[in-house]
Amino acid sequence: MQSEEVQNMFWEKGILERYAKSDLLFAAGKPNGMEYLLFEGVLHRFKGNAKGDPVTTGFYVGPMAVTPHFARTIQGRSLFSLQALTPVVVARIPVAELDRLRYAHRAFQLFGLRVVEEEVSKNLLVDIAYRSGNAQERLDLLRDMYPGLENLVPHYVIASYLGITHVSLSRLRGQSPR
Asked: What pTM did the predictor assign?
């Protein structure tokens, strides 16, 4: 199957959307039946803590797939919220439609497998860093995974992701700028 043919099948059901900085793509606890591909920009996933403050749990820097539906929902409801940190271009497609394509066409099946493999690998790497590394090591990993992110998004969001205060992040950045 040709790449153009595969793309055309996706776009028969997929929708390309643009979001402005700070726009919410979906909210934690709300129904969501879509899969998302980020083409341009930066998104962050977050969840409110006990005080209701947002805690960033991950970044998406285009181009990449957002965590697949089966791993980011329970009973069709989102485990986290997804917000644009910069203007973004995103494609979304109903889960049922993408599943139909995956079951019918090997190209979509292979794409889905690659997305899941990358997600599991990235999450394991981050989990290890968070359980065994200090704040500096977590910042270094963030810089390795997302070069230039510190120049694109608010530092309080990065501090939230690292599990430190904004002041601590400023100190770390001063000690080891990249």
From this structure: 0.89
